[in-house]
Amino acid sequence: MARAEAEAPRASNGRIATLKHRAEFLRLRNGGRCATAGFVLEGKRRADQRSIAGTARFGFTVSKKVGGAVERNRIKRRLRAAVRDVVGEHARPDFDYVLIARRPALDAVYSTLVADLMRAMGRVHAGPAKAQPSERRANRVQRPVSRTV
After folding, report:
1. Measuring CA to CA, how many Å separate 11 from each of 15, 26, 46, 97, 109?
2. Disulfide check for 19: which of 27, 59, 76, 95 has CB 3.0–4.6 Å away?
3. pLDDT digit string (tens) for 126-143?
4. pTM of the predicted protein model
């Protein structure tokens, strides 16, 4: 019974809720980001609470640069499986997420993908880390001043 409660964010048929429209993907570009070797995770809180209330939604993007159709589909299947394993405990029901696949996701160890996804979700939920003004000054590159006379 506890397992059924952990799977609450999934849709009733056992599938994860997915993003379908381009506008939904573009809205997430302004949200939090976390890059790993196998993918980039983008996430943002939904403003409209009426749409699929209480369910985290996911979108998957795999560019043609990653490989042929067979490889792209294999990567999407691996990422969907990782999301299914993580969604119950780590995904927030009022968030939308997009996973942008990278080539290493094809050959990565599955447990590594899952661990990276858990870490990435934690970083996306934490929000952007803002540097203190003194840190920003220290990180600046000092360029030599060259004057021509």
Report:
1. 5, 23, 17, 16, 27
2. 59
3. 876 654 555 555 556 666
4. 0.72
Residue 11, domain member (yes or no): yes
Average pLDDT, the chain: 80
Looking at the 3D structure of the chain, how many domains does it have? 1
Where residue 107 sits, what CATH number does that domain have? Answer: 3.30.230.10
Three-class SS string for the chain? CHHHHHCCCCCCCCCCEECCCHHHHHHHHHCEEEECCCEEEEEEECCCCCCCCCCCEEEEECCCCCCCHHHHHHHHHHHHHHHHHHHHHHCCCCEEEEEEECHHHHCCCHHHHHHHHHHHHHHHHHCCCCCCHHHHHHHCCCCCCCCCC
Instruction: Tell me, yes or no, whether 37 lies in a domain.
Output: yes
Q: Which residues span the domain enclosing 105?
A: 2-128
Per the domain annotation, does 113 fall within a domain?
A: yes
Class of residue 57 by CB neighbours under 10 A (exposed 0-12, middle 13-18, buried 19+): buried
Is 18 a domain residue?
yes
Q: What is the mean pLDDT of residues 23-51?
A: 85
> What's the pLDDT band for 10 if we cut at 50, 70, 90?
very low
